[in-house]
Design the sequence.
C-alpha cells in the first residue's frame, strides 16, 4: 500500500468524524473564532465566544463595539488587545465591503484585517466547500513526522506538498483528520506511538 493510501485509510479508521472544533453558528462566527484561535486552543476560544456572539451576533454589531468591551470578553484567550482590535477592524471591513457577509473568494478573504492564508483556507473549506488544506501547528507536525514535509519547510511549502500528495476531494476531510491526529494521538509531547497504525512510516521514531 502506498504511503498516502495508508495515511488516508488509517485516519479514516481513527477519526471518521473529525470536524472543526471551534463552536459556531454562522460563517461570521467561524471567521471570528479562527482569528481568535491564533496561539491558543480551540477550547479556550470556545470558552469566550458564547458571550462574545451573544452580545455581537454579526459584523454590523461587532463593528460598532467599544474596544474595551471586547477586550473584557476575550481577555482569557491571550493577546486579547491585538485580537480585539483585529476582529473589530475585520467586522468593519465586512460591513464596508461585503454588506456584513463573509466573502467566498480567497483574494477577498486574505485582504481582510487579521486574515492570512491559513484562516482563509479554514473558511473556504468549512463554509463554502472549496478544497483547501489549512496548515496549523498540528498539521505541520504530523506532516513532518510522516515524511510528507521536511523539518525546515514553512507552512506554505507544507501546504503545497500536502496538496500534491493527496487527492483534491480529500483535502477538507484530511485537514480535520490531521488536526485530530496531532491533537489527540501524535501529540507534540509524549505522542501515543504504541498502537499507532502509521508508526511504520513515522520519522519521529526513526
Sequence:
Amino acid at each position: 500500500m502506498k504511503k498516502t493510501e495508508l495515511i488516508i485509510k488509517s485516519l479514516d479508521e481513527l477519526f471518521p468524524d473529525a470536524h472543526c472544533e471551534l463552536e459556531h453558528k454562522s460563517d461570521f462566527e467561524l471567521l471570528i473564532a479562527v482569528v481568535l484561535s491564533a496561539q491558543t486552543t480551540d477550547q479556550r476560544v470556545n470558552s469566550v465566544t458564547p458571550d462574545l456572539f451573544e452580545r455581537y451576533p454579526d459584523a454590523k454589531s461587532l463593528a460598532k463595539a467599544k474596544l474595551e468591551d471586547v477586550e473584557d470578553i476575550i481577555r482569557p484567550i491571550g493577546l486579547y488587545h491585538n485580537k480585539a482590535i483585529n476582529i473589530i477592524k475585520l467586522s468593519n471591513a465586512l460591513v464596508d465591503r461585503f454588506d456584513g457577509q463573509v466573502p467566498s473568494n480567497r483574494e477577498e478573504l486574505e485582504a481582510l484585517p487579521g486574515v492570512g492564508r491559513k484562516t482563509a483556507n479554514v473558511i473556504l473549506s468549512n463554509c463554502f466547500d472549496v478544497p483547501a488544506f489549512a496548515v496549523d501547528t498540528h498539521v505541520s507536525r504530523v506532516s513532518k513526522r510522516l515524511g510528507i514535509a521536511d523539518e525546515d519547510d514553512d507552512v506554505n511549502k507544507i501546504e503545497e506538498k500536502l496538496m500534491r500528495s493527496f487527492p483534491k476531494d480529500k483535502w477538507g476531510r484530511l485537514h480535520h483528520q490531521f488536526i485530530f491526529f496531532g491533537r489527540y494521538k501524535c501529540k507534540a509531547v509524549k505522542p501515543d506511538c504504541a498502537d499507532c497504525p502509521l508508526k511504520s512510516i513515522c520519522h519521529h521514531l526513526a
Remarks:
- The longest helix spans residues 80-98.
- Residues 27-128 form a domain with the Endonuclease III; domain 1 fold (CATH 1.10.340.30).
- The chain has eleven helices and no strands.
- The CA atoms of residues 185 and 194 lie 10 Å apart.
